């Protein structure tokens, strides 16, 4: 394996050697000539590095050895210069201990030690430089992008269509673009973008050979351009490749080649495929494009590339982004190649292994094909297993070389300054997600980013460009958002990760259990899972990165603490769960440290030893909830660029002198301390400290401004890189401070994009807000400013897109301005939200002379809630408005939208005085909901052709509704219209769902057959006596509820009717169903007078539910061959006999209150032989008759108050048993059912005896409404099982979980505890549930805190802490002391989740 050349570190040394500090060091330590010679030789070596890299890839072992020696001395030289610089900084420090250390005696020792190191390094570099001629290494310009020869890499247009899988949709999209005539140009580009191996070339081949493409274009030309990448782009080579594909002989001159090319394509509608394009030089692409512009209108170019930027340069801003194949498609492709046609089933022993291998390929066709080809001739199971078990699918030796070579093109094409940045990413495991800012900080810490110019460009800006370059080349990809901050996170594709790992080799090591050998060359170490590897094996090695993110899993961190001080070259340190006392003992010895992450730690202050780290650039203390203060000497961290303290809710003040850290770019939180309380103990940094920190960027929250002094002056005005500013006052703070004067001095730079103000207690906003001095503001949120009466003229801000006003109690309106002004009203506003503004009377206050309300040209979303005095609402013009929501405006009487052509969603709720509503033409309106408007009498909907959903709830005075031309209406719900007399539906051919409910005065209803109904619900028609339904060809669901006067019902033929439900029709006597070929579900409930049911034919009826129809006696005999589920309750015995006798495939039966039936008739048992699921209620004795149900696997016994003892026969083979609501049950006797996996016992308060030998397969247990002692008695059952899910609910005498459970719950994955009112604590041993993935605590009011051991639950993914205010406060991000114990859990839910509660009770 070739060693990666440390281009970045070499550049770092050479640039650092020319700095002013190093020049002074040369003189100070008497080594000017030595350092100059060393750097000169290193410059000579740098010139031949590109040539050395190429020769190394050609397996030149002498060059490999040369590179190996070079790497060692380069890193040592970097450390040497760093030690000189650090010593220089320390000598200039003020700390007494530093001065004492550097006595004259120590100075002599230091100079002697350093001179020996310098001499050794210089000699080694001299030796390396001497070998350059012998190795025939040639100097090259390092700016040029070098790459290995790729003559093997060529492509063609032929493709075997039968071997292509999963690209039909992409193919049709591309062909659609190629054949489209919309706005045709002379020449346009269609780009296919994706990482190597996804099948871009194959997809282009499919398109190229499609019959429609062949007919549309003439000629068609295919050219592979993979050699021409980066700055090596050459116009001549491109033309040669194009001419080669059309069999034209090359000419020597560009002019001759141009003429030959034009002979082929001039005035012809041609198609040119340029495969594997890398060029990112716009000018050179334009040179080629000019030569191609001679074709006819409609000529197209198809480009395949890995880089989105290539597509953009070539003119396609909406390229086809290729994704991986689905899992079934991957297997289809794999099996087609690995097995010859018809042979898939000849080798069943390897079929399953093959499916696993195909899944591991992550949908990348090239990898799938390569592995399938390897396995095509192998039929031994061991051969397949060896590949399946190989964790790096790409490391398969010579047979897999092509895949590595294809992927390595991405690396070979990288500029040298990006190469170490790219490979460093493998310090994180596959699929690890990281934010861009953090990755750039790590690159800077390693010295990979250097500014090579004098324009004062920040390293972070350069790093951002590096990052974007890697992203554009698909070497990094977007992975989603951080759930807490919404910041984008990124990751490496697995294949790219393998590529980077193969390049960097043993320099980076992720410690795992399978690591048997640790290289001497290791420099970057990460630990993300608990491992058995001896940490001490890396002690003393030249480690530059150590990231430990699994400390919470480790009971003993002493081994980590022992080895860390030995990492003398360490640049990056991130440790988890390491006692802060131990860190303070040795952290200042790590003099090279530039990046230190102590986030999510429980300490009140970082150790003061940190302040002696003169090179520290990044200090992360995010989410340190207990943090109250910083070290007093924080100002000594003179190189600090990022002090991240976001989420440190208990921080009381900032350290004195923090304003001296003028390099600071990140300071998310600045807390203004209360000087009267804190100054006696600590020296406090006041707000004025911010004034010198003009490099701050990103976001800044200034908290506790009630403590600020009014004479602070302008402190934010010069911070031109600050994008987001939050200003917060605590309501309970110092009332003597003049908030208006404080705000006056907080004017930010005009570049600010986001502004949040909370709790401001002034009556007026400052002049910098009132005079619109922030033209670049995009987002504004103002909350809790209860005394302000006049808002600034936000309407004049040219860039404002989002305005959110909340709890502004005194504001009456928003001032538009004079009618004489020419300024647009909210020219860019897209989102407007007004909440809890009780005095607001209108959206604006008009000046005299204004004729009409203003328009909102770009308003996209509008929300108004809790504006009690808002009486009218009118938008004159809002051409972009898409969503509008008006809620809790009790005095709103009128609502008008004059022109909203793009309005798609409108919701109006709880507007008590709203009497009329008029909506003009709304061609895009798709959803309209109006509810709880008791005075609404008329509703006018003009033309709404796109309306698909209409819901009207609780508007009792609405008497009529006319909906013309609602052709797209697919869902209609009208409920609680007591006075509604008229309903007219016109031209609703798309109406699929209709609900008509609570119309007391509606007596007849006719539904025209022209409706395209698929679902119809008619309910609460107390006076409805007749119902006439035409035949609906599309009707699939029909529901009729609470039609008290309806006596008979004859339904028309509806061939697609699948579900019929009739409930609470107390006078309905008969139902006649014609032939219903599609009917699958029939439900008839609470129809007291129902006597007759006629089914003509229902061959697909599989589920029947009849409840509380005690007078039903007649069922026309019909065969029900598909009946599988039968639910009968409170019916006569004859109904059971009729339905069971008509079925032949019954699988589930629920019976309750069947004429006091003790057991089914003997003649019926033969019809129950297929029964799998039985639910019985109302039992008085054990149902011994179920022993004859040999197929029974699931059983439920419930609602049996007379049942005292339940004993089930041994002949059963149950997998699930549920016993519920048997208040007098005391004893349960079970056989040791070998298949029972689920047992649920609930609401059996007297249940005390449980007799069973063992339940070896039990995985799920639910216990509720029983005594706490029963839980302890079940320990013996756990001992023989592998319990995965445990649900405990309504056990009110349980104060804590039984201690004896611990040893039997090691396999537990899910634990929920609900309504255990006396539960006070989660036992400390809960931290030992290492497999737990989901934990829920619901309505346990005595449980007020979580144990420290929660930190150990590293596999926990979901945590529910619901309905406990105290627990929610203590575990919240901003106020909770318990947060650090659960912060590692990805998904935390604090609010009531009815779905989870239902799951716990009914699991």
Tell me what you see in this structure.
This is Disease resistance protein RGA3. Residues 688-808 form the R13L1/DRL21-like LRR repeat region domain. Residues 427-500 form the Disease resistance protein winged helix domain. It comes from Vitis vinifera. Residues 168-341 form the NB-ARC domain. Strand 20 (722-728), helix 27 and strand 21 form a beta-alpha-beta unit. The chain is an alpha/beta fold and 1403 residues long. It has a 31-stranded parallel β-sheet, sandwiched between helices. It has a seven-stranded parallel β-sheet with strand order 9-10-11-12-13-14-15, with helices on one face. The chain has a five-stranded parallel β-sheet with strand order 2-3-4-1-5. The protein starts with 6 loop residues before the first helix and ends with a helix. It is built from 35 helices and 65 strands. Helix 4 packs across helix 5 (61-91) and helix 5 (61-91) runs antiparallel to helix 7. The protein is globular. 25% of the residues lie in helices and 20% in strands.
């Amino acid at each position: 394996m070739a060693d990666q050349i440390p281009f970045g570190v070499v550049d770092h040394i050479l640039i650092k050697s020319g700095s002013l500090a190093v020049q002074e060091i040369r003189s100070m330590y008497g080594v000017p000539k030595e350092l100059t010679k060393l750097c000169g030789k290193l410059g000579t070596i740098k010139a031949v590095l590109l040539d050395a890299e190429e020769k190394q890839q050609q397996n030149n072992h002498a060059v490999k050895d040369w590179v190996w020696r070079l790497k060692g001395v380069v890193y040592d030289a970097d450390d040497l210069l760093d030690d000189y610089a650090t010593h220089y900084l320390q000598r200039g420090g003020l700390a007494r201990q530093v001065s004492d250390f550097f006595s004259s005696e120590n100075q002599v020792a230091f100079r002697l030690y350093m001179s020996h190191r310098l001499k050794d390094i210089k000699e080694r570099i001299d030796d390396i430089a001497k070998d350059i001629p012998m190795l025939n290494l040639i100097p090259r310009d390092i700016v040029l992008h070098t790459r290995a020869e790729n003559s093997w890499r060529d492509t063609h247009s032929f493709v075997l269509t039968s071997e292509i899988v999963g690209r039909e949709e992409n193919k049709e999209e591309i062909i659609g673009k190629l054949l489209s005539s919309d706005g045709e140009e002379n020449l346009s580009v269609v780009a296919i973008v994706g990482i190597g191996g996804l099948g871009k070339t194959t997809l282009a081949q499919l398109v190229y050979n499609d019959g429609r493409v062949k007919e549309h274009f003439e000629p068609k030309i295919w050219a592979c351009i993979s050699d021409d990448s980066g700055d090596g782009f050459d116009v001549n080579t491109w033309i040669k490749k194009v001419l080669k594909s059309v069999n034209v002989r090359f000419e020597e001159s560009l002019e001759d080649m141009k003429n030959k090319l034009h002979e082929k394509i001039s005035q012809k509608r041609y198609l040119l495929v340029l495969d594997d394009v890398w060029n990112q030089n716009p000018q050179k692409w334009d040179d080629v494009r000019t030569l191609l512009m001679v074709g006819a209108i409609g000529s197209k170019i198809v480009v395949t590339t890995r880089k989105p930027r290539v597509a953009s340069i070539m003119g396609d801003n909406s390229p086809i982004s290729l994704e991986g194949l689905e899992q079934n498609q991957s297997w289809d492709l794999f099996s087609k190649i690995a097995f010859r046609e018809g042979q898939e089933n000849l080798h069943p022993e390897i079929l399953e292994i093959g499916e696993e291998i195909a899944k591991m390929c992550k949908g990348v066709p090239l990898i799938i094909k390569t592995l399938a080809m390897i396995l095509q001739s192998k039929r031994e199971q061991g051969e397949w297993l060896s590949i399946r078990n190989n964790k790096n699918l790409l490391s398969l030796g010579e047979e897999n070389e092509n895949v590595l070579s294809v992927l390595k093109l991405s690396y070979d094409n990288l500029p040298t300054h990006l190469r170490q940045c790219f490979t460093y990413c493998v310090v994180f495991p596959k699929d690890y997600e990281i934010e861009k800012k953090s990755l750039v900080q790590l690159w800077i810490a390693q010295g990979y980013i250097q500014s090579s110019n004098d324009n004062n460009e920040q390293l972070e800006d350069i790093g951002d460009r590096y990052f974007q370059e890697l992203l554009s080349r698909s070497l990094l990809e977007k992975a989603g958002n951080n759930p807490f901050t919404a910041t984008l996170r990124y990751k490496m594709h697995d294949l790219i990760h393998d590529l980077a790992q193969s390049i960097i080799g043993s320099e980076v090591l992720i410690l795992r259990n399978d690591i048997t050998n640790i290289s001497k060359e290791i420099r970057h170490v990460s630990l993300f899972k608990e491992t058995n590897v001896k940490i001490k094996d890396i002690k003393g090695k030249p480690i530059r990165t150590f990231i430990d993110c699994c400390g919470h899993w480790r009971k003993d961190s002493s081994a980590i603490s022992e080895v860390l001080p030995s990492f003398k070259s360490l640049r990056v340190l991130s440790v988890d769960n390491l006692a802060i006392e131990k860190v303070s003992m040795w952290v200042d010895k790590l003099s090279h440290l530039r990046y230190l992450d102590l986030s999510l730690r429980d300490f009140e202050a970082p150790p003061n030893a940190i302040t002696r780290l003169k090179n520290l650039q990044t200090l992360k203390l995010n989410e340190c909830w207990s943090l109250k203060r910083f070290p007093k000497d924080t100002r000594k961290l003179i190189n600090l660029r990022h002090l991240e303290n976001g989420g440190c809710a208990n921080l009381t003040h900032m350290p004195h002198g923090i304003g001296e850290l003028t390099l600071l770019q990140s300071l998310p939180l600045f807390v203004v301390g209360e000087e009267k309380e804190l100054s006696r103990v600590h020296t406090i940094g006041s707000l004025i400290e911010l004034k010198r920190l003009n490099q701050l960027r990103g976001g800044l929250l200034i908290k506790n401004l009630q403590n600020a002094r009014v004479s602070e002056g302008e402190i934010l005005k010069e911070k031109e890189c600050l994008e987001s500013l939050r200003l917060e006052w605590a309501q309970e703070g110092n009332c003597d401070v003049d908030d208006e004067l404080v705000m006056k001095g907080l004017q930010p730079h005009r570049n600010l994009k986001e502004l949040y103000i909370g709790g401001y207690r002034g009556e007026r906003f400052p002049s910098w807000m009132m005079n619109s001095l922030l033209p670049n503001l995009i987002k504004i949120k103002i909350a809790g400013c209860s005394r302000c009466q006049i808002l600034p003229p936000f309407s004049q801000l040219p860039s404002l897109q989002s305005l959110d006003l909340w709890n502004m109690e005194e504001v009456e309106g928003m001032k538009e301005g004079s009618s004489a002004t020419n300024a647009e009203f909210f020219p860019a506003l897209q989102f407007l939200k007004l909440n809890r503004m009780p005095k607001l009377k209108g959206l604006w206050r008009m000046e005299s002379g204004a004729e009409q309300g203003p328009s909102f040209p770009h308003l996209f979303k509008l929300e108004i809630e809790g504006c009690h005095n808002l009486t009218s609402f009118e938008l004159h013009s809002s051409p972009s408005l898409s969503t509008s929501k008006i809620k809790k405006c009790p005095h709103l009487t009128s609502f008008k939208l004059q022109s909203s052509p793009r309005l798609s969603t409108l919701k109006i709720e709880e507007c008590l005085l709203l009497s009329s509503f008029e909506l003009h033409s709304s061609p895009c309106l798709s959803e309209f909901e109006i509810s709880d408007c008791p005075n609404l009498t008329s509703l006018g909907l003009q033309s709404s052709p796109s309306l698909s959903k209409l819901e009207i709830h609780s508007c009792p005075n609405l008497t009529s509704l006319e909906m013309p031309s609602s052709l797209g209406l697919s869902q209609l719900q009208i409920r609680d219209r007591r006075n509604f007399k008229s309903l007219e539906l016109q031209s609703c051919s798309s109406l699929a769902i209709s609900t008509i409910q609570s119309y007391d005065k509606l007596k007849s209803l006719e539904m025209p057959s022209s409706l395209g109904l698929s679902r119809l619900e008619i309910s609460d028609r107390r006076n409805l006596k007749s119902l006439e339904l035409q035949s609906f060809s599309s009707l699939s669901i029909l529901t009729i509820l609470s039609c008290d006067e309806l006596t008979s019902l004859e339904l028309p033929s509806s061939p697609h009717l699948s579900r019929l439900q009739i409930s609470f029709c107390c006078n309905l006597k008969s139902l006649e169903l014609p032939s219903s070929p599609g009917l699958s579900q029939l439900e008839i409930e609470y129809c007291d007078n129902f006597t007759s049911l006629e089914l003509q034919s229902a061959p697909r009826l599989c589920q029947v539910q009849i409840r509380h129809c005690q007078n039903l006696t007649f069922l026309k005999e019909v065969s029900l061959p598909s009946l599988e589920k039968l639910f009968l309750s409170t019916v006569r015995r004859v109904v059971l006999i009729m339905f069971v006798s008509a079925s032949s495939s019954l699988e589930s039966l629920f019976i309750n209150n069947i004429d006091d039936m003790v057991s089914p008739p003997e003649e019926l048992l033969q019809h129950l032989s297929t029964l799998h699921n039985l639910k019985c209620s109302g039992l008085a004795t054990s149902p011994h008759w179920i022993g004859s149900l040999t197929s029974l696997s699931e059983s439920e016994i419930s609602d049996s108050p007379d049942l005292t003892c339940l004993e089930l026969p041994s002949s059963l083979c149950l997998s699930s048993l549920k016993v519920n609501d048997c208040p007098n049950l005391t004893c349960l006797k079970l056989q040791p059912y070998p298949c029972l996996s689920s047992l649920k016992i609930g609401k059996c308060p007297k249940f005390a005896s449980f007799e069973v030998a063992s339940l070896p397969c039990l995985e799920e247990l639910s216990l509720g409404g029983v005594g706490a002692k029963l839980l302890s008695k079940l320990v013996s059952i756990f001992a023989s099982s592998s319990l995965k899910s445990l649900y405990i609910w309504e056990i009110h005498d349980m104060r804590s979980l039984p201690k004896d459970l611990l040893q039997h719950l090691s396999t537990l994955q899910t634990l929920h505890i609900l309504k255990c009112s006396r539960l006070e604590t989660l036992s400390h041993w809960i931290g030992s549930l290492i497999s737990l993935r989901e934990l829920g605590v619901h309505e346990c009011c005595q449980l007020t805190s979580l144990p420290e051991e929660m930190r150990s639950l590293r596999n926990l993914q979901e945590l529910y802490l619901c309905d406990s205010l105290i627990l929610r406060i203590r575990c919240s991000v901003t106020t909770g002391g318990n947060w650090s114990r659960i912060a590692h859990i990805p998904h935390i839910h604090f609010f009531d989740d009815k779905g989870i509660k239902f799951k716990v009770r009914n699991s």
